[in-house]
């Protein structure tokens, strides 16, 4: 083998240099040269080309070198040898009718040198196989074809989603993972060239069509899993950015769910059904008012009215459940179960009967309930032991703040009776304001500063009704609904199903790469979020199958179990002077078998490929 430099001309008179790996062969028509591999443009000096060609040939022939090679040359040679080996295996596989052997393969025997056996080019295929199988079941290719995606765009889109599910990261990191670690390219049988800009463009294209794609995925899930979709859970979350996001129209500073108030945010709204299958999503500004997001969601649900029953109940938390939004839900013809924004009710509103108590699913905590029905709504007063325990910890922190706030007020008050202490009324008011800002409990106190001739003479303070109500409300909340047909336990169960959408957000943030989001401009930022949402559409189907089969692993555990299912190339030298390359998958472990069985997919995602070639290429006399 040797390397040849070729100057290629393109339209417009421009030219570029390309280097080719060439081998000389004997043919019935005489000696000929054929291109083994196009190497692009090499950065090596010409005097090293022959060394590189010999090193490539050595790797292909599975021969050990006597002398150490230049690390740069050896790395390039391994890379090119791997490409050549893969191309030869693919060509050998194409010669088999149907792409794979039908039925049991015939036995093949060879005399091999077991000391020459090496295993290389290992690529993970386990989690990728699961993700791609679920996408195929949803008919993801047909969905994108219906939206005029090209074959290459479909391949990039699927790689992007598989990458987000198996190895979440930036587009650049996804390209590295697809090229060096993952066998997703073999599973998809795609020959597209991988580079980050192609994935960027695919992400944007998916976002531009996200409403139609989500609608079709929701429809396929409904048909495959016979979903009832009688309960719609709606909530919002936000995700933060480490950068400044200057000039962004969606990234805004606001209170983060992770208490990162120093970072710009964007907000994601999501609706899921009672089974956890996502229906639709939308990205809002980071400082969006939660109640103002509901109308868009209701409009989206209305578009789907013809697909399934209108008898749906929308479940929301207190942040969205304003009186205006409740009226909007009624006008749309839906039912609702929401957390009441009203914090206090008259004591006579609730019945004198004892609380009804139920045991929650954890088998450890109980929930006390009192139910009141009016002509239009039902109200359920709930007292949760778990919520009380959580709020009691918060209460201890609050009590410490209150104690320090009162001590600071008392110190200012005592100073009014001592000489050489500040007594100016405006200054005292300013100092009290600073204490309120520092301890953030001033709203729980009624504070009165008395003055005479512009000088403060006394400070009186006591806890107000808001503080008393907050203490009495520890562990309690009120649910309201227009589902008058439900019992108190059924109302509570619907509300507790909100944990499903909270779990969805947790999965997207922790397992599907919702963050970190490295993009600087709005379009790729939003596109990144929607790729994660599409990945969750696929994941919901996988988790549903496993839960139905009694397997309750989370996605991170499934990925770890499948991580050791890999595809490798085994190379060995034969007694008759040839090299055999075999590309196959490792046998799945018992747990991998279980997951594949429950998902009803193949245990071996790809068939075996093998090729036998001479250890040394027969050179023609011209090369000699």
From TrEMBL:
Protein's name in the database: Transposase IS4-like domain-containing protein
Pfam name, any one: DDE_Tnp_1
SUPFAM superfamilies found in the cross-reference section: Ribonuclease H-like
Domain of life: Bacteria
InterPro entries assigned: IS1634_transpos, RNaseH-like_sf, Transposase_11
NCBIfam families tied to this protein: transpos_IS1634
UniProt GO BP: DNA transposition
Domain Transposase IS4-like: 229-536
Entry GO MF terms: DNA binding; transposase activity
